[in-house]
Amino acid sequence: MKNTLRKVSVWLGALLLCGAALAQDKVVYHIDNAEAQATKGLRNIRNHLDVAPETKIIVVTHADGVDFLMENAKDKKNPNIDYAALVSALKARGVKFEVCEITLKNRNLNKNQFNLDAEFTPSGVVRIGQLQSRENYAYIKP
After folding, report:
1. Residues 84-113, buried b or exposed e (16+ Cβ, 10 A)?
2. The whole model's pTM is what?
């Protein structure tokens, strides 16, 4: 009996260690105002990945937050900042960028107006809630 308990304890300990080793940080960045949040958010994401490169990151945008994902978008305060290049570099590191389709409808925008790195989600707010509640994503709003 003592031997069996020891084997079970060792097995459970190994299983817990494997689970901890496989755990991956997951973060949703929420952007709803590109002018105020995009440059800072993209910089935060780059820094995040520099320190924790295995983090799974999804950027969900809606309302005015979608603007930095549009073709030829630039930072209004610093026109030298080309969002497409920054987004593409982060996409290459595994970051997903999602645009709210309700925003498209409300603002009369078309999917073809967006950077090729953008993906679409039916509702940005619903997506953020699902990522947090169903998939255990941490929430960051730059």
Report:
1. bebbeebbeeebbbbbbbbbbeeeebeeee
2. 0.84
